[in-house]
Write a structure and sequence with these properties.
Keywords: Acyltransferase, Transferase. The chain is an alpha+beta fold and 254 residues long. The chain contains five helices and twelve strands. A hairpin with an 8-residue loop joins strand 2 and strand 3.
Length: 254
């Protein structure tokens, strides 16, 4: 499932030809720091459906892996295949494709923010409302459990937030960066990105993030803050064939 990294692979790069943790970050997360979230069938791992849509195929998926994924998701389900550029098995149908980029910390001026507040389960209704209005990407009822989420409130209302999602060993993804349209242009997203990055750095880890390759304004912002392009990737979704066997039950990772 890995995508070949650029020669300048960024912090933590491996030797040429050796898969990097960030080439399959969901697999590295679900078999590492986020193993307690993982649901497993064979070599296929996924987050609970109310936590995150990310799932992980092995780097070299075979026929058994695709059958396990189909049984885990269910006939006719649409499944995300982030980073996958190989050939789908017969009967699978691509339903969504978006070119993306992965950027890594290369000199962020990370710093805490006095106005940022920690968000938790009690804040989820407001977080879901903000996400619905700004569409930064998937954020589900239990996504907040994946890591630290920070927000900025004005007159008691949540107007901006950012937080942590994927967590490969030594790395943490910054995600769900969004600002209420009425409060854009005030630098709130920048402040929250740097505050979340500060917390990641305090743990001795390196921030990274994903965005659409076509989101050039966001990419320019991230690069101005100190992120650097590590690789190009793809956000792909495919529909499971209707006639897949289901002879084994999915089980959580021990």
């Amino acid at each position: 499932m890995s995508v070949v990294s650029s020669p300048d692979a960024g912090p933590g790069r491996t030797a040429a030809g050796v898969p990097h943790l960030l080439d399959n970050p969901a697999l590295a997360s679900l078999s590492g720091p986020h193993a307690h979230f993982a649901e497993r069938r064979g070599r296929v791992l996924r987050y609970p459906v109310d936590v995150s849509p990310w799932l992980a195929l092995p780097d070299d998926p075979d026929e058994r892996d695709w059958a396990d994924l189909a049984a885990l998701a269910g006939p006719g389900a649409e499944v995300p295949l982030p980073g996958f550029r190989g050939r789908l098995p017969a009967g699978w149908e691509v339903t969504f494709r978006l070119e993306g980029v992965q950027l890594v910390d290369d000199g962020l001026a990370a710093a805490p923010d006095a106005e940022a507040v920690r968000l938790g389960p009690a804040d989820v209704p407001e977080m879901l409302d903000l996400v619905a209005r700004t569409r930064p990407g998937p954020f589900l009822p239990r996504t907040v459990e994946l890591g630290t989420y920070l927000g900025i409130r004005r007159d008691g209302a949540l107007v901006a937030m950012a937080g942590e999602r994927l967590h490969p060993p030594g790395w943490t993804e910054i995600s769900a960066v969004c600002t209420d349209p009425a409060f854009r242009g005030q630098g709130l997203a920048t402040r929250l990105i740097l505050a979340v990055a500060h917390g990641i750095r305090e743990r001795g880890e390196t921030p990274f993030l994903h965005t659409s390759a076509g989101n050039t304004g966001a990419i320019r912002l991230y690069e101005s803050l100190g992120f650097r392009l590590r690789r190009r990737t793809v956000f792909l979704e495919a529909r499971v064939p209707q006639d897949q066997p289901d002879d084994r039950a999915a089980v959580p990772v021990p």
